[in-house]
Every structure is written in structure tokens, then in C-alpha cells.
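Incident log, structure service

09:12 report received: a user says their structure output differs between two submissions of the same chain.
09:20 pulled the input from the user's history:
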Amino acid sequence: MHKEINLFLEIEYLGTKYFGFQIQNKKIAKEISIQGVIEDSLKRLFNQEIRLNCSGRTDKSVHAKGQVLNFKVKTKIPINNIKIALNSFLPQDIRIKQIKKVPLEFHARFSAKSKIYRYIILNQKQPSVFLSDFSWYVSGSLDINKMKKVSKLLEGERDFSLFAKEPRKYKHCIRTVKYICIKKRGTFIYIDIEANGFLRNMVRNIVSFLVSIGLGKVKLQDVNLILDKKIKHCNNPAPGGGLYLSKVKYK
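09:34 re-ran on a clean worker, output below:
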């Protein structure tokens, strides 16, 4: 009898056609999830139901360059052959980049130390049909220096309930943002955020807030009052297509 092994998968995907990573409770034919597609491929390969653990769910239309999964299985199939077989079963917009054996106690979510997300903004006069699924088109002139200044106020440990969807669902909304890096390259603006954990819609709401600063819709003198919840701020999350799960860090 073969011993159970724990397999680590690093994957990338385009989220455009999918209803997010996680399998939906109400199965509707058009609501296809990344998890569902991969688990169907695992069932085809191993001839058994296998449930994946993921480092974190991504929402509808959100992409990933370095999503991490793990699952346990008893098999005699060589690991490299598992990767080849699964990639042959998967559609072209989901790819397994790496598979390796890890200790049985490893868990893609609970073993993670931090995650890095990237958000891409297309900032020019005209939109692009080719980039509409992969970035947020913002036509107005953005003051990058103001955005950088405010981003520094969001670094460190704090209550991020202001930027969470349905914050009451969490035991607490305290997270530690290690850094927020904003770079402008031509007509593109890249916002990278690393934190020890993220709340639902947290990155997209932070990006939307920073864009409001850059456009002058939110005044610098009001920022601390908003963060302290002395002035009401309504979240309007940035579109999912501009968001990428870049990397998950482990020990």
C-alpha cells in the first residue's frame, strides 16, 4: 500500500472566464470556478474525489501568477508525470508551474506567512480593448506622489475593517501590511501590496481609495479622519481584472 503524500502546487491562471477560485455552493452551470476545474482534473487522474486547500480565494475575474495549493493522495505516479498529466487536462488559461512533495502538516493557507498582490492601472486618454480584462482603465490624471504619501499611512499593523467587504464576518480585521509600493511605467501604474493576511476586497478597496486620492476626489487633509472613521467613506472596489495574486511566502 502506498503512503499518503502531501503535494504542493504553484499555479497561474487568468480569472476572466471564472467565477473566482472557490467552488460555489449553489452550482450554476455558468459559474465555473478555478478550484472546480482543477479538482475535476485531479479526479480524472487519480480516479477519486480530492479537495484542494488554497493559500487564499480570489474573486471573480481576478488573476494569479503564484497561487499555491496543496492536497494529499496515495499514488505511485511520479510527481513530474502528475504535473504533465494535469496540464494536459487543464484549459490553456490554468497552468501548473510547479509540483513538489511537502511535509504532511503543510497547509497552503495556514502555513503561509504573507502574500503579495499586484494591481495594474492603465492611465491614459483612451481605453484599450486588449487590456480591459487585465487592468483598470483610469482616464484622469493621477498624482502619484499623493498616492505614495497616503500609502505609507496604511503600512504596519492596523484595523482594516474600513477596506473589507462585510467586516462583521471576521473575528477581527487587524492585519499587518508590510509594504505598499507604487510605480509608474509609461501609461501603466503598478501597486504592489504585501501583508500577513487580506480581508475580502481589501486590496481592491485600498487601490480604489488611493486612486481617489490621486484624482483629488479625496483630500489629503481628510485621510486621517477617514482612516479613524470620523468621516464616512464609501468603498467602491477597483475592478477584479486588474488584480493579480503574485506570490505566497512560506518559511
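09:41 both user submissions now match this output. Likely a transient worker issue. Closing.
09:42 reviewer note: The domain at 114-249 is CATH 3.30.70.660 (Alpha-Beta Plaits). The chain has two domains: 4-102, 114-249.
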